[in-house]
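During the reporting period the student researcher (J.K.) took over the structure-prediction task from the postdoctoral fellow and processed the backlog of single-chain submissions. One of the processed entries is reproduced below for the supervisory committee.
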Amino acid sequence: MINSDDIAAVRERAPIDEIIGAHVALKTAGVGALKGLCPFHDERSPSFHVRPAQGRYHCFGCGEGGDVISFVMKLDGLSFQEAVEYLAPRAGVTLRYEAGGAPRSEGTAGQRKRLLDAHRVAAEFYEAQLETPEAKTGRDFLMERGFGREVAAQFGIGYAPQGWSHLADHLRTKGFTEAELRSSGLVSEGQSGKVYDRFRGRLVWPIRDVTGEVIGFGARRLYEDDQGPKYLNTPETALYKKAQVLYGLDLAKTAIRQERQVVVVEGYTDVMACHLAGVTSAVATCGTAFGEEHVKVVRRLMGDVQGAQLKVGATSSRVVFTFDGDEAGQNAALKSFALDQAFLAQTFVAVDPDGLDPCELRQSRGDEAVRALIAGVQPLYQFVIRTALATHDLNTAEGRVAALRAAAPVVAGIRDKALRPEYARQLAGWLGMEPEAVVAAVADAGPRQGTPGGRGPQAGTPGPGAQRAGATPERAPSRRDPVVRAEALALGVLLQAAPELRGTPGGADVVAQLTPEAFSQPHYRAVYEAMLAAGGIGGAGADWVTQVVEQAGETLAGTISALAVTPLPHDRADTLGVYAMSVVAKVVELGLTREIAALRGQMQRAGEGSAEAQEAFAQVVALEARRRALRDL
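J.K. obtained the following structure tokens:
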């Protein structure tokens, strides 16, 4: 676990305007405010607002909002810890780790930076080596597949020279220690204890994380005397976890997020072919099958969570797998089918009838053929069912019954219940059997298995992104009501201009009179109570707003983000405090007016001359005096 004080420091110091500005063209929208086109949904008029002083952003079009950490998490599909580790160097914070109360000695931001630096230097070294005479075999390999030097440079492809320690020697000259070389995975260690280059005489692809940092390499064998595997990857390191790594993710993340689609291919050259053909959401695994950890990475980027399809501009997400048409490709499809329940997205498969992969398809038929391959997908369930049927002799009764027994659990495992009857009828047609018998077999397979192998959530079961029970967000109050507008504006100035308000003559007195009861809307009263719980009015900066969010809870987080970045009608730096005081005083006055009305009703019910009526009258007089004083501000 990362030390909580360090997390707060990252949130406070990370330049949110620079971090977001690297992805969104931001323009000034008043003092201390910026706005631009939202990166999370398609829009033509900017509704995405950033308040650097509060460390918050919010889109008034799709509702996305949060702090700098949540922005990096949502944009790059990182976990919370990964986002903090990514931001720490940019915030000038050295992270401390805690496990059972003891500091962790490895994996700190400083050590991570050294390993990233080593990989950056290695990538530059390999790229330079691709231009040497020795690398001609590698350049020919690329050219034969339709990849010239410009393409090689675009994807950062390099060449690892033959020999034993060219890269290791180069890294030593750059100041990297023997311990750092061993930790990086760029070298291997012999029996004598000496280290030598892991990649030698091979074409090298840099493997980057979602932020674009090189974390490993994949190397392709070029020479017949190379006794190693056809493809050799970086081993498991502090940076490189093959179960979580997807080649091309840094290039594909924008398309994945915008199109809500990811295309999973089988190799580096297939990724290149897809991107060059315009299928820019293509990625590939690195030395391992597509697994559950990859699913998590993809889901975060697509926003593949319960309710995501309800957001403005969102469409149903799709995962497209491409496989070779051989037995290995069919087995890969079956493994992917086992993961289908982990997605909320629709899953499809694209297989060329002639068994060509995207790289071969581009070579022989051009870019259009690659695009057509991805456009002509079929549902993964259908592909798996047809593959299962192909292993049985459907010309015999025994073969058809055996095929039904194999395919029925597949149909029963379809996540969308509405699709099951349709696929059952299609299965009946493929088998040449009565639909009633097939529907019955599917229904019989469902209760016992639910999903293939009995794994994965049942249809209709909330997935990992579902909200906790009881955490249904409240509906925000309508801003058409002038009282609601006044209360929202008051909360906005308290979140954005509390220091200026308290620094204005009379401002502290007005704040002191503001109570939760002054807010007529429960939604806003809860926000104000969260402000008080976070240390009271007067806080400033990203950390205070974050504390308000933590006190309010997840259901009000979006409301607070919106209030913290809402443009103020009057935000000149020299008069902001006076304006803020007038806004808050208005809400205090409205609250006093409601109290006075309630007391007058109490007086009428108690009867003229009664002790209760006299006490209520005294309170009315005092409240009227306070209300007149506010109006004189």
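The committee noted the following: The chain is about 50% helix and 10% strand.
J.K. will present the remaining backlog at the next meeting.
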